[in-house]
Design a protein that fits this description.
The complex is a heterodimer of chains A (218) and B (408). With 218 residues, chain A is α/β, with parallel strands linked by helices. In chain A, 34% of the residues lie in helices and 27% in strands. Chain A has one domain: Rossmann fold. The two termini of chain A are 27 Å apart. The two termini of chain B are 32 Å apart. The chains are: A alpha/beta (218), B alpha+beta (408).
Chain lengths: 218, 408
């Protein structure tokens, strides 16, 4: 069994666009160890988000293998405990306040008890939103929403956080603060981080940088 | 509470916000459908119930009729009263008459009542609006309110009574009418009975119709909790061969069948209103699924199963059904409660309250809703609302998280 938190071998993904076959990923290999922070960079359309979806088990590759801590089980149930995902568009549930959005990750896993409630409050405090716990997403700024999303990703104490361009919808300063928060929390909680980003400065803060070009790491 | 239940509730009734458009429109449409069903079935049931009450209050639950007349009726009444379940029996004679007051004729139905036993079957006293039942003797009559009004007869006036027997006499004889005194006016609240009926003693009716010691029929009151059909069957075993006992339902079987058929047809037709409401809920839920495609993707990414996502949307249909049905029940029962105020308000504007009474037999809009009807309405509304949630739920569950997250 591998020690890698996540291991991908020969991941290939092709999309059909009309009659055209577009090979987005061409045999990507990736291995990320515990506690590592890995930045994946690349041009638009280079397949970064596709790769992240495959790594998260949200999509299935045409070829190749994926394991999480050596296990090929990448189903929904395991994803809930093993992974935390941060999206570019936050994807908060508008009817729920910040606290309930964070707790939703625990709700899906099991009914949240006092421990989970305390952890959600603690995470919100950690991302600087203790005072905004009862605010709805519509009452929060973009940066605050993304901080709620970060707290939600950490709710079930995952071993791996996958962040797909988490600063894409934020201004430079707010984006920088979010990356700093993500890196700080991953270091603090010993959580592995895979960060997909356009931003070279953000990538430079990670322990390893990978460049995706034409469907392969180059 | 499972997350899908919690989220369904939150999406229907978000905290700290007004009800969303989807919830209000869906709930109101279901509620209106349910309320409409309750009001219509309640009023239709009221007509049937009122008719039953009127029949029972004026004739008892069981009527005994013969092809001709029933002889030796004292003995027959005694035998009937000995039948288990019978509370009382009262013989009667009936037929058409001509009455004349100040040269104004009318042709009412005569009911000759046995004053000694009528109280065991019918409480006529409570329907007397003028005069007194105690004053009714063999030279007096009581008129229905409509007849008294149409003839313009005051209490204490004399009227002339002609019977068909008088017409059958030889032409050399002079036809002399019977002169009787009007001692009271009755009002049952049923237009047909109140329109043109004359009440007299059994002895006078027998005399007018030449029934020497015979009667036309016997009305029977049964004990509370007894079944009319069963008691009628038992009475039949003690009756003379040409007489037969009919429950009020047998006597009005055709009418009751028509009423039941009408009610069933109305239920069927009005269920389409609830069906339309369910389609509205479904279309709004489909819009919701489209609007929330990315959230559905997120739920999948957070580890929710397809079954759970389907349940989340299906439960919203159920939620709409539960709240809409409850609101509809409240609204429908309230409208039924104040129905006569509403009718009065409408007729005050449009006129025609008398017409309403004339054509629909009753001076007030009746109401009677059966528990069985409510169960049918509630079950149908809940079932249709649940079904309305299933298609959007299946569509939501079939969305792949990655495609849902990518959707614009």
């Amino acid at each position: 069994m591998s020690d890698a938190i996540i291991s991908a071998r020969g991941l290939t993904k092709t999309f059909l666009s009309g009659d055209r076959r577009i090979e987005v990923l061409r045999g990507v290999d990736l291995e990320v160890g515990a506690g590592e922070t890995v930045a994946i960079r690349g041009e638009s359309g280079s397949g970064k988000s596709t790769l992240l979806n495959l790594l998260a088990g949200l999509d299935t590759p045409d070829a190749g293998t994926l394991t999480w801590a050596g296990s090929a089980d990448t189903g929904a149930k395991r994803r809930a405990t093993y992974l935390g995902i941060v999206f570019q568009s936050f994807y908060l549930i508008p009817e729920l306040d910040a606290l309930q959005n964070v707790l939703m990750a625990a709700r899906i896993l099991k009914g949240p008890g006092a421990t989970e409630l305390a952890r959600a409050k603690e995470l919100l405090a950690r991302v600087g939103l203790a005072e905004r716990a009862r605010h709805l997403p519509a009452q929060l700024s973009g940066g605050e929403r993304q901080r709620v999303a970060v707290a939600r990703a950490l709710m079930n104490a995952p071993r791996l956080i996958l962040a797909d361009e988490p600063t894409g919808n934020l201004d430079e300063q707010t984006g920088g603060a979010i990356i700093e928060l993500l890196l700080g929390l991953s270091a603090e909680t010993q959580t592995t981080l895979v960060l997909v980003t356009h931003n070279a400065a953000h990538a430079a803060n990670c322990s390893r940088q990978l460049m995706l070009h034409a469907g392969r790491f180059g | 509470m499972p997350w899908y239940f919690y989220l369904a509730l939150k999406q229907l009734f978000p905290t700290g916000r007004r009800f969303p458009f989807f919830t209000v429109i869906s709930v109101v449409s279901v509620a209106l459908g349910v309320a409409l069903l309750i009001v219509v079935l309640g009023v239709m049931g009221g007509f049937a119930h009122q008719i039953r009450q009127t029949i029972i209050q004026t004739e008892g639950e069981i009527q005994i009729k013969a092809r001709g007349s029933i002889g030796n009726y004292h003995d027959v009444v005694r035998r009937i009263e000995a039948v288990p379940g019978v509370a009382g029996a009262s013989p009667y004679a009936s037929g058409m008459l001509m009455v004349v007051y100040q040269n104004k004729p009318s042709f009412p139905l005569m009911r000759g009542l046995d004053m000694a036993s009528i109280g065991h079957v019918v409480s006529l006293e409570k329907f007397v609006t003028a005069g007194s039942l105690d004053a009714l003797d063999d030279d007096a009559v009581i008129l229905s309110e409509g007849l008294a009004d149409s003839l313009g007869v005051p209490i204490g006036a004399n009227i002339e009574v002609y019977t068909p027997l008088m017409l059958a006499r030889r032409d050399s004889e002079v036809i002399l009418p019977h002169t009787v005194k009007v001692v009271g006016v009755l009002r049952f609240g049923h237009q047909e009975l109140d329109k043109s009926t004359i009440y007299c003693t059994l002895r006078l009716a027998q005399e007018l119709y030449g029934l020497v010691g015979d009667v036309h029929g016997i009305n029977v009151r049964i004990q509370p909790g007894m079944k009319e059909d069963e008691v009628a069957e038992r009475i039949n075993t003690v009756l003379p061969p040409d007489a037969r006992a009919f429950s009020w339902m047998d006597s009005f079987a055709d009418f009751l069948t028509v009423l039941k058929l009408e009610k069933n047809m109305m239920t069927f037709v009005l269920l389409f209103v609830v069906l339309v409401a369910a389609f509205l809920t479904m279309s709004l839920l489909l819009v919701l699924v489209l609007k929330k495609t990315r959230e559905i993707g997120l739920l999948g990414a957070l580890g929710a199963s397809r079954r759970q996502i389907a349940l989340c949307f299906c439960l919203q249909g159920v939620g709409v059904g539960v709240v809409g049905t409850a609101a509809g029940l409240g609204l429908g029962l309230t409208v039924l409660h104040i129905r006569n105020d509403i009718v009065r308000a409408i007729t005050r504007v449009t006129g025609g309250q008398e017409l309403l009474a004339r054509f629909y037999q009753f001076s007030e809009l009746p109401e009677h809703i059966e528990v069985r009807d409510l169960v049918v309405i509630v079950t149908a509304a809940l079932l249709l609302s649940t079904l309305a949630g299933i298609i959007p739920a299946v569509i939501a569950a079939r969305l792949k998280p990655v495609e849902a997250l990518r959707s614009e």
